[in-house]
Amino acid sequence: MGEKFQAYRSLDYSLPDKTLAWNLYGAGLENMGCDGQPEAFDVPEPNDDQMLVRIDSVGVCFSDIKVLKQGSAHPKLYNRDMRQEPTRLGHEVSLTVVKVGKNLAGNYHPGQRLAVQPDIYQQGKSTAYGYTIPGGLVQYHLIGKEVLETDAGACLLPMADSMGYAESSLLEPWGCVMAAYTQRRRLTPKAGGVMWMVGQPGDETVYTCSLALSPSRIVLSNVPASMRKIAEASGAEIIERDGLTPADFDALKQDVTDGLGFDDIVVLNPGSADVVGKIARLIARRGTCNLVGAKALDGLVEVDLGRLHYDYIAFVGTSGTDIAAAYGEARNRCELRPGGTTVFVGAGGPMGQMHVQRALELPTGPKLVIVTEISDERLQTLRDMFQPLAEKYQRTILYFNPNASQQSFHAFVMESTQGQGADDVVVSVPVAALMEEGGAVMKPDGMLVLFAGVPNGTMGKVDMSNVYLSNAQYTGTSGLTIDDQSLVMERRVAGTLSPGRSVAAIGGLETAPEAIRSVMEGRYPGKVVVFPQLSNLPLMALKELPEKLPEVAAKLGENLMWTNEAEEVLIEKYWEKPE
């Protein structure tokens, strides 16, 4: 360990008087910092309930660009006057504790290394770090109750000693990827909720329910006698609404749920895809729609793709007569099918790459991986990054550019899977048409993961018949929890995941605007990491290091993978120890 790096790691130096920061005063890069430069502020002293932290590394994210473009109009900034109350970008952060207020001394100590879980809520309101709370594009700043006392507790994760700085800051985006394969949907009827049971006139099927229901209210529409008994046995308030047409649905939602939507909907013997689509619009956030039937619908169903991603609505179903058989995690998976085929749509971006890497390194991952990109350059990057990894784990990976092929995406997937389709399709591009295409190449019992978010109200057509006839899954995810980040760290420490493989470019604090611009342009095939403590470090791709910083390049891993050893040499070379 070099002398300078040892001093850096152990805080064996005098704190500077000033800290440089890239505060954001409005929309646009021109409103970041002052005259294109970071501003100098006094290094603050923590009070009894705060601690002073040093920011070691910050990953640049597309979400930063959304804040930059929208300014105070961004949903997490709540139209505040940013001239008077600026924010600061940077939510993918690794930090070191420098000073601790006396009320926090039992939980934190100087030299402790932490990662931030930025998806913060306080009293149900989003106050995310790097958005509402000024983030990590700064050298030193204070952390207090805004991060330590949240609805989920302290949003800081202690780092294992073996974790590097860059890979620690990448726990946040990697945590988002992990979250895509952990169950976010509610998969049982809500206790105390509002349920709607929708039947068909003349249906006398004898339905059962092996699960005890306990909603507060149940609306019954044209249900057979067997379902009426199930509803009455729950002890809920019963509301009769027979003879409804789709024109009546909005009024029903307003009248019975105050416009919030039904927590649970059970649709018996569905036949009309159009009606199912209109019923689905009445699902509450995190609500379920249980389709129970033995015959296919008369077409594809138009559903809100944005709500699948952001509101975690769940479509479940069964072809039997026990409506409870549709519920539960055993029937409704969220992980990639072991040994199956997974298609990654838009795999060339930083987050798409993480999904591919996770699948290849997953011990029970797919045997066949198909990646799509509309850029041959990005496809070549994917080959360079992942072909060796696929061979290492004895997986097959295929590459497809729909813009450069005479063959359609659908035809390519079907040919590659002997006409079976994919077990799983993960879409990392916020385009509804691509989400629809992804659903069209699934097996009847496949899973569609909408990782990229489109605005709520963005509609797309999918095959809902397969939900109840074959157990198809439609899932989406937004954000993460500290448990997701912890899972990434556990896998990194265990050697089953390499977050450093995602790093594509590095730069010092002064390069932050250019780093953000590079992400806007898609300049680098992976994550850009800024080191706020390093001065005069130009922004450069890792592939430039052999020529520009050969001593750092010599410590990179296979295929120019970022390593802790390379990071140590970088800090040794560029960190200026305060005297």
Description:
This protein is α/β, with parallel strands linked by helices and 579 residues long. It contains 19 helices and 28 strands. The strands form seven sheets. Strands 4, 6, 7, 10, 11, 26, 27 and 28 form an eight-stranded mixed beta sheet that branches. The chain has a six-stranded parallel beta sheet with strand order 14-13-12-15-16-18, with helices on both faces. β13, α6 and β14 form a beta-alpha-beta unit. The model has no long low-confidence stretch (mean pLDDT 96). Keywords: Oxidoreductase. This is Alcohol dehydrogenase. InterPro entries: ADH-like_N, GroES-like_sf, NAD(P)-bd_dom_sf, Zn_alcohol_dh. It comes from Ornatilinea apprima.
**DSSP helical segment count:** 19
Number of domains: 3
Q: What share of the residues does DSSP label as strand, in percent?
A: 15-25%
What distance lies between the first and last C-alpha atoms, to the nearest angstrom? Answer: 20 Å
Structural class: alpha/beta
Largest sheet: 8 strands, mixed
Level-1 CATH class name of the largest domain: Alpha Beta
Instruction: List the uncertain runs.
Output: none
- Number of strand elements: 28
- Round the mean pLDDT to the nearest integer and report it: 96
Rg, alpha carbons: 26 Å
- Which superfamily, in CATH terms, is the homologous superfamily of the largest domain? Medium-chain alcohol dehydrogenases, catalytic domain
CATH architecture of the largest domain, please? Alpha-Beta Complex
Q: What name does CATH use for the topology of the largest domain?
A: Quinone Oxidoreductase, Chain A, domain 1
> So what's the overall shape?
globular
Organism: Ornatilinea apprima
InterPro entries: ADH-like_N, GroES-like_sf, NAD(P)-bd_dom_sf, Zn_alcohol_dh
GO molecular function: oxidoreductase activity
Domain Alcohol dehydrogenase-like N-terminal: 48-142
